[in-house]
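Protein modeling request. Please complete all fields; requests missing the sequence field cannot be processed.
Requester role: graduate student
Desired output: 3D structure, token encoding
Chains: 1
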Amino acid sequence: MSDDLLQFKDYSNTPSTSSPPAQINVNSPSHSTGSGQSGRQRGDPLSDLIYDMSNSANILSGGMSPGGGGGGGKDTGLPEPATATPSKTSFLTIEYYQKFFDVDTYMVLERIANSMIPKRAPSNYLKSHIGLNPDLYGPFWITTTLIFCIAISGNIANYLQHQSDNYQWRYNFHLVSYAATCIFIYVNFLPGALWALFKYSLKPLQEGLETENADYTPSLLSLMCVYGYSLAIYIPVSILWVIQLSILQWLLVITAALLSGSVLIAVLTPALRNSKYSLFLIIGILGAHFLLAAGFMLYFFHVPANAAAAVHSTVETIKQPVNQALEATAKAVIGNITNK
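Delivered output (340 residues):
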């Protein structure tokens, strides 16, 4: 009795007048009527199960059509497997630029620190970090913050320069557009020119001296990312430029340009080594970085000659009563000591 339960039996279709006969469609060779399955016996449950499992796995992986063995477009009633074909998006859509903003806070802060502190980034930082995931999120917010910091701090510096004059001071909104134009040109056009020079001045490969970075040139987005982060140091410096001391302002210019410029050269070293004009490129990169800082200070914050004279006269005016008060205090203290 138990042996009969484990066996499959075929029943002939008995016509029924009340309802149509029930049909079961099983996609296995034991239930197919084609002649291609003559190598296997009909009614083997274990073989049917193995075949159905392997056929389902192939359907899910997209490796073969249902029905097995290149089944010639046979309709089995199963849906076609979904094939993951990469879709190409146009650069005019937002989805194209979404991957350049896929960063977290830690990564942005780490790249800001690497752009201001020399020798903090590894030697292959441009290729292994920036090149694999160049982002525009950090450069966008750094440049935007710098534009408004320069505009606001420049107006404050202008107010401090004319506070002693009979001058009705007004906020200069044009400083925002001036700063935005200057920064936009520097962050976009200079990396583009540098990228073209790297491509044009690439050294030819020499036999026996090939290395991993022998023909490496950074991408345009990598250069834009590096230059965007290199401006982060000018955000705190632009606030300190409000102090109306010419020596301090020039010291800030030199310090910020040297720190950020040295990091910029160190990061671009793998690409500079492959250029035939590496020395001229280094001079040009450092010169442009210094001119940017000097231009910011001279146009937005520099103390003019008349303002410097006014500051000097103000200091002298304050110094005189202070000296008199100190002399009177000293005489009083000496008189008390002699009386005792």
